[in-house]
Amino acid sequence: MLWDWNYVWEIMPALLRASIVTVQATLLGFVLAAVLGLIFAILRMSRSNWISIPTAGFVEFIRSTPVLIQIFFVFFVFPEFGIVLPAMVAGVIALGLHYGTYCSEVYRAGLENIPRGQWEASIALNLSPYITFRDIIIPQAIPPVIPALGNYLVALFKETPLLSAIAVLELMQTAKILGSENFRYVEPMTLVGGFFLVMSIVAAAGIRQVEAYLNRTLRNPGGAR
Amino acid sequence: MQLRPLAVCAIIFFTAGLAISSFAGFREFIPGLLEGGLITIQITLGGAVVAIVMALLGAMAKMYGIGPIRWIAVAYIEVFRGTSALVQLFWLFFVLPHFGIVLDPMTVAIVALGLNIGAYGAEVIRGAVNSVPRGQWEASVALNMPRALSLRRIILPQAFVAMIPPWGNLFIELLKATALVSLITISDLTFRAQQMNQITFRTVEIFTIVLIVYLALSVLITVGMRTLETFAARGIARGR
């Protein structure tokens, strides 16, 4: 009575289709977060206070306000300035921006772990700052922080149900619609919870694999972090 | 060291907030938003209490519980860390009534967010307890202390200092997560903002104020936790 398997099979296709939207939002958001995070991290390390302090302030501001409000902000406030975005795009931008600020802290830890000698050697070799970053610093700074970035990928994935608040037809929104159509919330909600649980556990296991692989390949017995 | 940029930010946003709140266009929204802010604060405080209790129970059960109790704790931690806060909130809100348990939205909000943050907190506590040097356990065994007593008098007070900064982060997470409760019909800050937005269409002003209020609250939490940390670390430093 409480759990109706026929109903489960009936709603399963719709939920699976919606889960594709969830995965899309996660991946797009994370690509945006990874890129923005690196930009924030580098700007924050800038020697000019006029660049580093406003960046730090912006990052702290985004980090300490709720991502739901930021989603609303992008979706409702941007149109006032003439930028009308579809719900999905607005949601991905807001999630990417929010997690970009988290990622920037991760990158910063990676960048600060590069020994000073590497910078000094690049100056001695007369490399431009751009070349130094691209060829010397970034290739050394990124691999050790990949597991930490992976954790934020999982966290971002778990935030995607927020997109239901601006009516993106992702998993949560679909479950809510199915629930209200049939007046049965038990199955859709539980299935959504189960889906997130399974995906998070799989992703966490994947991150552990990557971490072990990196520890082997980096040959860094002292621990990369 | 990190306090200075924080203070600078706080001052900038405070003055910006003052300047903005003195505009007539903004002023009319402030009373309603502050009422919502009060609900947000209530949920944050209630959620924090639930989270601390659940984290302690979860961590203790996971580390020292026997068989089934440990499995329950592990399951609790994994389930609540592995699914989204919003899904948990909706699950408690929509699904529990089918089992005959009808809670009012406020209780659902506090319980759901508390359980969610508590699961993360349990891992924080476990990490902090594990970071206490083994010698402390051995010394309390040598002094013939029962396990519970040495945990309470020796280990936890030392672990307490190590867990303050991560708890500060978790409380900020909790504050930000309270924005979700607007989706289960509680008239918190976010809900009020949406409501006013639908009535007045003054989107820019409303959402800007809301962001500033959340920022102010989280700066408050950060400063509070820093203060607590200084106080807590003082006794430990002397002990060593």
CATH level 4 superfamily of chain B = MetI-like
Low-confidence regions of chain B: none
Beta-strand proportion of chain B: under 5%
General form of chain A: flat
How far is the N terminus from the C terminus of chain A?
52 Å
Question: Biggest interface between protein chains, with counts per chain?
Answer: A-B, 40 and 45 residues
- Under CATH, the topology of chain B can be stated as MetI-like fold
Query: Tell me about the biggest sheet of chain A?
Result: none
Give the strand tally of chain A. Answer: 0
Main beta sheet strand tally, sense and closure of chain B: none
Q: What structural class results from the helix and strand content of chain A?
A: mainly alpha
CATH class of chain A: Mainly Alpha
- Rg of chain B (CA only): 21 Å
**Alpha-beta content class of chain B:** mainly alpha
| Head-to-tail CA distance between termini of chain B | 23 Å
How much helicity do the residues of chain B have? over 70%
CATH architecture of chain B: Orthogonal Bundle
Shape of chain B: flat
Strand percentage of chain A: under 5%
CATH homologous superfamily (4th level) name of chain A = MetI-like
Per CATH, the architecture of chain A is Orthogonal Bundle
Explain the overall architecture.
The complex is a heterodimer of chains A (about 220) and B (about 240). Chain A has helices at about 5-45, 50-65, 65-75, 85-110, 115-125, 130-160, 170-180, 185-220. Chain A has about 220 residues and is mainly alpha-helical. Chain A has a single domain, classed as Orthogonal Bundle (MetI-like fold), CATH 1.10.3720.10. The termini of chain A are far apart. Chain B has helices spanning about 5-20, 25, 30-65, 65-80, 85-95, 105-130, 135-140, 145-175, 190-200, 205-240. Chain B is flat.
